[in-house]
Every structure is written in structure tokens, then in C-alpha cells.
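REVIEWER CHECKLIST
Item 1: Sequence provided? yes
Item 2: Single chain? yes
Item 3: Sequence as submitted:
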Amino acid sequence: MSCSIRAAAIAQKLGLILIGSGEDRIEQPADIDECKPGDVVWLRDSDPEKVALINYRKPSLVICDEKTALDLQVPCLIAPNPRLSFIRCLKLFFAAEELHTIHPTAVIHQGAVIGKHVSIGPYTRVDQSVCIGDDCVIGSGVS
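Item 4: Structure as written out by the authors:
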């Protein structure tokens, strides 16, 4: 999912303290080794090599602990668990939108009741007496 959001908005939504400019636009998550302006990355601890790489590559936002933030020259979000906060950031701002579809190879009996916003995977069989509630995801090959 394509996204462009300000660092300050991410900080507010995650409930984290922002060090540095909150005006930078974040376009996508990235790996530290390939990051660039517009990216958000996370760093577990103050590894001198990774800190130097981040300061050189200049991502627009780093999610890290307080001690590591002191060594960085880019905007940072202070997090007690940087990895978890990065995952939350991914889910909130960069996760692909779920499509609620029924795969063409799924076999669904006319008597089955299917709720709203349901996804049914390939080669799944739904019999007559089945009732699937709203917002359910049924994987592939399920009977």
C-alpha cells in the first residue's frame, strides 16, 4: 500500500516521543542497509556500524530506544521496544488493504450463508449447512 505520512502523525498514532523534525514525509518502510530519505527503519541498539550507516543514508525516521537516538542525526521515535513499534507502524500505515473475495475455485453450496466482508481461499468447499459470519477469512483447501 502506498502511503505518505508525516513523522509527527506516526509518533502521535503510536504514542511515542519524536526527536527531530516531525515534518518529514514517510513513504515506505525499509531495511537499514537500503534505506534512503522518505523511509522509516528501526534499530534495536546503538551498533556503531548501523548508526553510521543510518547517519549516512538519512532515512526520514528511525524507531529506536532513547540511548540510540542520541547517536543519530535523523528524526527518531523513542520506543521501549523498537521492533514492536516498527511492526505497529507497518500495520497502521503500510499494510496492504485486505480484499474480501471468494476465489473462483471455491465451491459454495447455494444453501450456505456467507456474511459480509468474507474472504474464501482457493479450493475451499462450503457445504449447505454452513454459516460463515461477517469479517471472516477462510484459507485455501478448507472443507
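Item 5: Key structural point noted by reviewer: Residues 55 and 73 are 6 Å apart (CA to CA).
Item 6: Recommendation: ____
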